[in-house]
UniProtKB/TrEMBL annotation:
Residues 33-167 form the SIS domain. It comes from the Bacteria. It comes from Breznakia blatticola. GO terms for biological process: fructose 6-phosphate metabolic process; protein N-linked glycosylation; UDP-N-acetylglucosamine metabolic process. Pfam families: SIS. GO terms for molecular function: carbohydrate derivative binding; glutamine-fructose-6-phosphate transaminase (isomerizing) activity. PANTHER family: FRUCTOSELYSINE 6-PHOSPHATE DEGLYCASE (PTHR10937:SF14), GLUCOSAMINE--FRUCTOSE-6-PHOSPHATE AMINOTRANSFERASE, ISOMERIZING (PTHR10937). Transmembrane segments: none annotated. This is Fructoselysine-6-phosphate deglycase.
Length: 343
């Protein structure tokens, strides 16, 4: 029987898969940078981000902490510019990213960090302001800003570093299997899309929303609530981790208050389940996004935790966002303040 063709509104599958191939083709370049970092040696690693990039680096730090005992920090660019942490030295490696290459706070941080003789590895464009103040650059020639593109590149760099230092022995197998990740993520989009439309239609006009996540999927939970709902849709949200939920936020849960839970597949899943059980008792508007519900063809189960943020971004930042835009009638690209003037 011929498989029914699913059409995803506001999503070009062919373009996505072509750009996914371009991203995966960067594997060799990423591995070369990772090998050079290890060969040179370092005392610690700082992931430097702001806004969406800060959120995208969160699972990468989680994985490095999970699989190694290296000293790894996740820092916010505007904050590091004023704090100048003493642990950031010439023996450090700074890894940062900016698709535009001109993110003000990141460029400022990279400029003084490089001037102090510290390695700055940037996922950005060579000729951008950030590219010009970086010591190593990884450029991906794609036009669409899909978060999973970033996740894959970041994971390849971080896990290759770990592998070369005696951690994460199955790096080659993981990296080989990632060649098929984007076809999997298309199938996941197709599976989730009807539910995305249903959720957006039901909740787009809620006056207040609570978003909860933890572990490897916390960064994506925060990214969706902040970048998409707040910045792009002007929807009032509260994002909180599953452990922190029980220290403040729980008192705001009552019938009629929507709680959206992103349920992951790592050690923190039990914390997500605790939130789920509580909310089942005290609100009639609980929505659970469980990454475990989605199959990954050709990818071993032991790698699912690494892929879980990619699953989350496919269903949330891509499909759910598209349907919110339809119902709010608020263009995802429109801003009142962000990058509109100096502030």
């Amino acid at each position: 029987m011929e498989k029914e063709k699913v059409t995803l509104a506001k999503f070009d599958v062919d373009k996505y898969l072509k750009e996914g191939d371009a991203i995966y083709a960067q594997r060799g370049a990423v591995e070369k940078v990772a090998d050079e970092i290890v060969e040179k040696g370092f005392k610690n690693i700082f992931f430097l981000g702001i806004g969406g990039t800060y959120a995208e680096f969160a699972p990468v730090k989680y994985f490095m902490d999970k699989y190694s005992d290296l000293d790894v920090y996740l820092v916010e660019a505007a904050e590091i510019n004023v704090l100048r942490p003493k642990k950031l030295t010439k023996d450090s490696v700074v890894i940062t990213a900016s698709a535009s290459g001109d993110t003000k706070e990141i460029v400022e941080a990279a400029t003084w960090i490089k001037a102090e003789g510290i390695e700055v590895v940037s996922f950005t464009k060579h000729e951008s302001p950030l590219g010009k103040v970086s010591t190593k650059i990884i450029q991906a020639d794609v036009t669409t800003g899909m978060c999973e593109y970033s996740y894959l590149l970041f994971d390849l760099l971080a896990l290759r570093i770990l592998n070369k230092m005696g951690y994460f022995p199955k790096y080659e197998l993981f990296a080989d299997q990632m060649k098929g990740i984007f076809k999997n993520l298309v199938a996941i989009r197709e599976q989730f899309d009807p539910k995305a439309e249903e959720i957006a239609k039901k909740y787009y006009n809620e006056p207040y929303n609570i978003w909860v996540g933890s572990g490897a999927t916390w960064g994506e939970t925060y990214l969706f609530s902040m970048c998409i709902l707040e910045e792009m849709q002007w929807v009032r949200t509260k994002s909180v981790t599953s452990p922190e939920f029980f220290h403040g936020t729980l008192e705001l849960v009552e019938p009629g208050v929507p709680v959206f839970l992103v349920k992951g597949e790592d050690e923190c899943r039990q914390l997500d389940t605790r939130v789920e059980r509580f909310c089942q008792r005290f609100t009639n508007k609980l929505v659970v996004f469980d990454t475990q519900e989605y199959a990954l063809d050709g990818i071993d189960d032991e790698f699912r935790v690494i892929v879980s943020p990619m699953i989350a971004t496919s269903v949330l930042t891509e499909r759910l966002a598209a349907h919110y835009e339809t119902y709010t009638k608020h263009n995802l690209n429109y801003r009142r303040y962000y990058r509109q003037f100096e502030y």
